[in-house]
Amino acid sequence: MMASREHRMHHWLWHEVRNNWHQYPRDIQQKIDELGWRPPRPVLDEGGNPNLENDSGEDFLYMHRQMIGDVNATLKQVGDPGYPRVQGWLEVPPPGDASYPVPPAWFDPGGQGQAPFANLERIKSNMFYEKRFRFWQKAFTDPVFLRSVTLGKLGVLIEMTIHNAMHMRWAASTGTVRPDPLQATGDIDPTRGEVIGVEWDDPRYDFLGDTYSSHVNPIFWKLHGWIDDRVEGWKIANGVYGNNFWKGTWIGKMPGHAEMVAPHALHEGPEHVVSPMAESQQVANLIAQTGVFHNNPFMPSFSMEAW
Q1: Could you tell me which of 4, 10, 9, 36 has the C-alpha nearest to residue 196?
Q2: pTM of this prediction?
Q3: How far apart are CA 292 and CA 307, in angstroms?
Q4: Beta bridge partners of 265
Q5: CA atoms within 13 A on the CB side of 173
Q6: Residue 123, domain extent
Q7: What is the pLDDT along the chain (307 residues), one digit of tens a residue?
Q8: Which residues sit opposite 50 in a β-bridge?
Q9: What InterPro entries has UniProt attached to this entry (predicted)?
Q10: For residues 136 and 145, is the Cβ–Cβ distance under 8 A?
């Protein structure tokens, strides 16, 4: 299910446009907007820093909660008593956990470079867990702290710190990583073509460091299950009940949801109305024209250790 192209494209596009929106030229923004993919609350501001005040963190928490709900619905149909639903970690696995060993860091001279390798090696170290993971876990489960922040601010803080770090701590080298979509050559037709090769839709491609593939990895559901539980912790700390509390509910065009079956047109006229999957391809092609990509999405240029 999650290895399908439509699910991969959705997860990749959702993170791409939400993180890079302010870097796209105005004409590209307009075309993406016409296709129904404009993020109402970009998570990074025009300077590339996390926006803690616009409730984009709620979008992050809400969208991934919908993903968990979709998987749970499928698991219910499967009826496996050994795996009835997504169950997140109760605690982020400490160093030496035999069930969730930390894969070694890897060096890619043609891609990562020395500095990212050093960052990756540090994130995977025991010291990083003791100094940062324990601090983050304590803060994000502390009722006093949870009462001091909005859910939107909490979502961004989680996303940009422990979430990103968990992705890369348990990421394993795949030997090869999906390249960025083809950059603009002046002749890309935004209504046609595939800028991400279908070979990357292979279920075996489940790299945790790529938003096109991370959700195919079982670890993704463990870490996002832990994150989803933080919403419930925030609700309890703030005396919030029920589900009518969300301010940020942007999920993009998620497969199987209402917005996905409401196609937009890139140009006026019914002859240009296309399927949701074709729309996703169009948005990907438009992004490719800009040459702006969310490289190393879980290892941002700003320091995740600043908080």
Answers
A1: 9
A2: 0.91
A3: 27
A4: 273
A5: 12
A6: 5-306
A7: 788 999 999 999 999 999 999 999 999 999 999 999 999 999 999 999 999 999 999 999 999 999 999 999 999 999 999 899 999 999 999 999 999 999 999 987 655 445 578 899 999 999 999 999 999 999 999 999 999 999 999 999 999 999 999 999 999 998 888 888 765 444 455 555 568 889 999 999 999 999 999 999 999 999 999 999 999 999 999 999 999 999 999 999 999 886 554 444 444 444 555 678 889 989 999 999 898 987 777 876 656 666 7
A8: 44
A9: Di-copper_centre_dom_sf
A10: no
CA distance 293 to 297: 9
DSSP one-letter string for 164-226: HHHHHHT----SS-PPPPPPP-S---TTS--SS-GGGG-TT---TT-TTTGGGSHHHHHHHHH
Distance of alpha carbon 298 from alpha carbon 224, whole angstroms: 14
Tokens of 83: 């795996």
Cα within 13 Å of Cα(244), Cβ side: 0
- Bridge partners of 273, per DSSP, are 265
CA angle 107/112/117 to nearest 5° reads 50
DSSP bridge partners of 6:
none
Q: H/E/C letters for each residue in 119-178?
A: HHHHHCCHHHHHHHHHHHHHHHCCHHHHCCCCHHHHHHHHHHHHHHHHHHHCCCCCCCCC
**CB atoms near residue 180 (< 10 Å):** 15
Q: Which residue has the tokens 């999957």?
A: 277
Question: Which two tokens mark 188?
Answer: 């890309």
160-173 CB burial, b ≥16 within 10 A, e <16: bbbbbbbbbbbbbe
CA distance 168 to 243: 31
Measured between alpha carbons, how far is 254 from 250 in angstroms, rounded to an integer? 10
189, two tokens: 């037709």
| Residues present in the chain in total | 307
